[in-house]
Amino acid sequence: MDKTYFATGSRKSANAKVWLVQDSSGTVVNGKPFDTYFGRPDLVARALSPLKNTGSSGQFGMKCRVAGGGLSAQAAAVALGAARALVTFNPDLRKSLRAAELLKRDPREKERMKYGLAKRRKRFQWTKR
User: Fold this and answer.
1) Which tens digits make up the pLDDT trace of 59-94?
2) What DSSP assignment string belongs to the chain?
3) Which of 23, 44, 60, 119 is buried deepest, with most CB atoms within 10 A?
4) CA 81/CA 87 separation, integer angstroms
5) What pLDDT does 23 receive?
6) Under CATH, which number does the domain 4-99 receive?
7) How far apart are CA 92 and CA 106, in angstroms?
8) Which long-range contacts (CB under 8 A, 24 or more apart) does 2-5 make?
9) At 16, is the pLDDT very low, low, confident or very high (cuts 50, 70, 90)?
């Protein structure tokens, strides 16, 4: 019988729901394989980094549902969700995941638009005459 572990992760405006399925080799994001969904090997490696860090990549398959943000933020959200799900599976993994900073949510968000400016920080050009 397959046992599943669930957790959520987020980065910027991307949210990911991650299910770790024991004794399964399928890693799927929104119904597509990781390689075709993310398209770039660095994003696939980022999303699978908690499993590689703990040495449990052959032990689990991942099913993910992501929404919002871009591909890079979605990969980071999947990584955070996978790390949290691994901790629910085995609390002893928390130490190694914290040492690799995989349990930390990246707090950087998009800066708000300010009135009187052209962009977030860029000012309009000053003309003397």
Assistant:
1) 899 999 999 999 999 999 999 999 999 999 999 999
2) ---EEEEEEEETTEEEEEEEEET----EETTEEHHHHH-SHHHHHHHTHHHHHHT-TTTEEEEEEEESS-HHHHHHHHHHHHHHHHHHH-GGGHHHHHHTT-SSPP---PPPP-TTSSSSSPPPPP---
3) 60
4) 10
5) 76
6) 3.30.230.10
7) 23
8) 5/85, 5/86, 5/88, 5/89
9) very high
Instruction: Report which residue type is found at 114.
Output: K
User: Comparing C-alpha atoms, which of 52, 50, 43 is closest to residue 14?
Assistant: 43
The Cα–Cα gap between 74 and 67 comes to 8
pLDDT for the residue numbered 81: 97
The length of the chain is: 129
Task: Identify whether the C-beta of residue 33 lies closer than 8 Å to the C-beta of residue 27.
Answer: yes
Q: Map tokens 């890079």 to a residue.
A: 72
What is the C-alpha separation between 4 and 80, in angstroms, rounded? Answer: 17
